[in-house]
Amino acid sequence: GMEKAVERLSGLQKFPDNIRNICVLAHVDHGKTTLSDGLIAHNGFISQKLAGKLRFMDFLDDEQRRGITMKSAAISLLYTPKCAVGGDEAQPEPLLINLIDSPGHVDFCSEVSTAARLSDGGLVVVDVVEGICVQTHAVLRQAWEERLQVCLVFNKLDRLIVEMGYTPTEAYERMRNLLNEINGVMSAFVSEKFISQADTLLATSAEGGALDHDERDDGLPTDDIDKGDDEGDDDIESDVVTDAEHSVDVFSVERGNVAFACAADGWAFRTDAFAQMYASKLGCSCTVLRRGLWGDWFYSPKTRKIVGRKAAGGKLKPLFVQCVLDPIWKLYKVAEAERHGYPPEGGKDLAAMAASLKVDVAEKDLRSADRKTALEAVMKAWLPLSPAILEMVAHRLPSPTGSSKRRVHRLMPAPTLKQTLAADDAAALAASRKAVSRCDASEGSVTTAFISKMLAVPASAVHGKSTGGAAQSAAGGASVFLGFGRVYSGALREGDVVYVINGAYDPSEPDDGSCEEIVVEELYLMMGQGMFRVKEVPAGNILAVGGLDRHVLKSATLSSSKMCAPFGNMMFQVAPIVKVAVEPESVADMPALVEGLRLLNRSDAFVEVGLMETGEHVIAAAGEVHLERCIADLRERFAKIDLKVSPPLVSFREGVSTTGSATATTSNGTLTIKATAAPLPSFFPRVIEDSADSLKQILLSARQKAGDAADTLVPEIMGKLNKAREAVAIDGDGSEDVIEKTLSSAWSLGPKHVGPNMMSVGKMLDGERGPVIAPLGNPSVGEHLKLPVKTCENKAEKQNGIIDFSDANVVKTIEGNALTGFQMACERGPLCEEPLFGVTVQLEVYSKVDAEAGGDGEVGEAQYGPFSGQVASAAREAIRKAVLKAGPRLVEAMYLSVISTTSEALGGTYSVLGRRRAKVISESIREGTGVFIIHSYLPVAESFGFADELRQCSSGASNAQLMLSHWEHLDIDPFFKPKTEEEREEFGEDGYVGPNMARQLVDATRRRKGLKVEETIVKDATKQRTLSRKA
Fold first, then answer.
1. Which CATH class is domain 278-383?
2. How far apart (Å, rounded) are the C-alpha atoms in residues 942 and 915?
3. pLDDT at residue 282 in the model
4. Quick one: three-class SS letters along 715-784?
5. The CATH number of 655-886 is which of 2.60.40.2470, 3.30.460.10, 3.30.230.10, 3.40.50.1000?
6. Whole-prediction pTM value?
7. Euclidean distance between CA atoms 621 and 943, whole angstroms
C-alpha cells in the first residue's frame, strides 16, 4: 500500500499550486501534537474505514518502532476539498499538504526555525484558557520573521466549559479579548519592522502583484483556492499597501483564518460551517450571516434581521453565542448530566440531540457506558476536526507559488560581494533569484534547494536505499544522516551535479572554498516514520537528501549554478550560552567521543561544539533542557560511552561604569598610546547586537555592492536605535542627538568588527601634551551609516617627534595595528578574559621627543619583533588598562523568566527568586483563573536547577519558562575597598561584610580558565586559633 501512496504523491508533486507546506507552532502543552495526530488520522492515503484501526504512524514492526526516538520531520497528507456548494463543477483537485512538526519548549526554538523556514504557512495553536504565553509570542515572531502567512487555532474550548465553568457569553468575551491581544502582538511586529517592509512592498508592486484592493475589500474568503496569481488578499504585506485606515487585523474570524477546536475530543469548526447550517433557518444569505457570526451582531426574531448593538437593546445574545456556542455547551452539559445520572435540562438526551443535529453516530457509541465517549462521538460526527482545519489550510494558506514572491527577500538576502561581477554573471545571479521568487519548476530553470538541518534517522526506517554510501555507513543499525530540506526552484533529480554552497559564500569569488561540487545520490519522501526513495522532486516540495553527510554541516544551499546567493541564515531566538565540558569516563573512549560530538553537532542545528585551548571538549546549548537532551543523545545514540560532564560554564561580558585612561608604550620605546575607555549609552550595545547581520552587510562588503543593501538596512538600524533611545530617554534634553554624536566619529566596532564596542577616531599628538597633528583613523562606521562626519583639521605644522606622522605608510601601519589591538582587547577583557560589552574607546598616540633615542627604532625591530606587532600589543595593553581604570563591571546574561503559579505557592516562588538574585518586573493575575504570572529577570549564572527548585518549593504548583533576554551590568565593583569614613563604618575595613558577588563570579571564571587568582593561602594549618580558648 505504501508504495502506491508514494507513487500517487510524486504524481501530485508536479503541481505546485496544489501543495501546501505548513508548520504547527505553539507554546508547550497547547495541543500541537494532538492537533497534528488528528490531522494525520484523516489522511487520504488510508481509506476512511481503516482510519481508526490502522495507525498510520506505526507501520513499522514492533522492534523497529522501539528504535525510533525522533518524531518524523514531515508528514504528507492528502486532502480532497469538498465540492463548492451548489456548484455542479467537476470534483476539485486533491491537495498535497506537508505538515512539519515543531517542538514547543523554548529551548528548542532552533527546531521551530527549521520548520518555519521550510513552510509557506503556519497554524498557530493557542490554549484558550492559558492565552498568550512566552513561546506563543516567540513563534508568532518567528513566523513573522520568516514571512509566513498564519492561521490561528483556538484549542481546548472544552476547558472553558468543563474546567472554568464559563457561560457561552463569557467564553465569547474571553476569546474576543484573546483575539484582540494576538492581533496586537502581530501589529506590533508590523510597526516595528515597517522600514524593512518597504522593500518587500516595492517588490510586489513592481511585479504587478498588488491587486486592486478596492474590489476585493469585503474581506470575505474566496471559495476557490487561491490560484497562486498572488491573490493574497490578506497578506500582511498587501494590508500595508492598502491605506493605513483599513489596516486589517492579521487574524479575523469572518475572513476565515481563525478556527475553534478541541483537538483532544476531535472536533473543530470555522464560523462558515455554521453560516451554511443556519442560513436557510434564519432566511438570510450565507455571506451576510458569515459576517454576522462574530462581533456585536444580534439576530432579532421580531424583524428576522441581523442587527447591530443599538437595535438589539441589550436583551439578545450575540449571534456567535446563540448559534455556535450555545449548542456546543448544551451537548457538553447534557453529557455531564447523564454522567451524574440526573435528567438533562430541556429533557433531551444525547441521542435525541444527535438526531436533531442530523448527524449519524454509531448506535454503540451513543449507548456507551462512558458518556465522554458518547459525547466525543457526537462532536466528531457533527464538527470533525481535520476537514475543518485542512479546509482552512487549503483556502487561507498560500501555495509555494503564492508565497515565494513575498519570502524571497527573507530567504535569499542580497549577497555581500567583494568583487564586481561580470555582466552575464550578474544576470545569472538575478535569474536564480527570480526562479526562487516564482517557484519556477519548468525545465530550463535553475535548481535551488535549501537543507535546513541534518536528520539522524534509524537505518531501518529508510526504504529503498542504494547499496552505496549510506547503507555502508549505517552498518550495525546505526543512524543515517539525511539532509532535511525543500526545493525552491527547478527540480532535484538523482544523479544531478549540484553545488553545495554554505552561508559565507560570495558569488564574486566562486573558488574560495565555500562551494563544492557533488552528485545527488539519493532522494527520499517522508511519510510518517519512513523515508521512501524517489527519482526526482520538483520545486515547492519537502524532501530528504542522502549522502550529504560529508558535505553539509548543519544547513546549506544546493544549486545547479555557481551564480546563486546562499540562503539567509536561520533566525534563532536565543543564543547558546550554557556550556559544559565533557570527557569520557575511560580515556580509551576519546575517539568515540570525538566522533559522537561530530554527529551531535550535525544533528542539531543549534548546538555548538568546540575545543577549548585547554583541550576540553565543550558543548554549548540554549538552556538546561536542551543541554540535557544533547548529553542524552551523545550518551545513547552518537557516542554510546559513559561521560563525565562538568558543572555548567557560563559566559560573561565585561563593561565599564565611568571613564578612565591609561597609557602603554611600544617595546622599543618610540610610540606611546593613551587609551580612554568610557561606557556607551545603555541602549547602544543591545541594538548593535540585534542588528549584527545587517551591520555585516553594511560594514564588511565591497563599497559598490554595499550601496544597495545599505539603502534599506541603514534606516532600519537607525530606526531601531531611535526607538531604543526613546524607550530609555528619561534625561530629556541631552539625549536627542546622542546617536549622531556617538556614531559620527565611530571608526570601528569590535570584536569581529560588528560587536557591541566602539572605537572612535583618535588623535596623533605632537609630544605628550602637544597639539593635534592629524586624526588617527577615519570615521568609516559613521560614513557607512550615512551620518555627517566631523574630521579635525591638521593643526600643527612642525613636528618634534621621532616618528614622522606625515609619512603615509607609517600612519597606515599605526592605524591598522591600533585597530588590530582594539579587536584583540575586545575579544578578551582584563577582568576574566571575557569579551567587552558596551565600551567606547578613543586612542591618542604620540612619540618621544628626546633626540638621543633616535637610533632606537632600528634596534627595536631586531629585539622586539616588527614594529607593527609592537603597536598592536601596545594598543591592546593600553585599552585593557584603561578598562580597569574605568570602574570595570561584570556584565551577565539575563533570562526573562515567566513563572505561572497559584496563590498558595507565591511565597515559595518569591523565596526561590530571591535566592537567585532575580529582579521581579511585574506580577499579574490571569483574569478568570487563580493563576499568578510573575515576570522577572534571572541571571543565567543562577539559573541551573531553577525549574526543579521551583517545583520543590511550590510543591509542583509553579513552572517557569526561561528565554534569553539581554546583557546587564552587575552593579558591584569587583575591586571594592572602602575608602571614606562612612564606607568604613558600613562595610568594615576589608570591604563587604558579606561576600562580593561580582568578585566571586570573576574569580570562579578565572579559576576555570587557569588564570591567576589572588587568594590568601594558609601556610601553617596548626597555628590557626579560630576557637576561643576555654579557660
1. alpha beta
2. 9
3. 76
4. HHHHHHHHHHHHHHCCCCHHHCCHHHHHHHCEEEEECCCCCCEEEEEEEEECCCCCCEEEEECCCHHHHH
5. 3.30.230.10
6. 0.68
7. 14
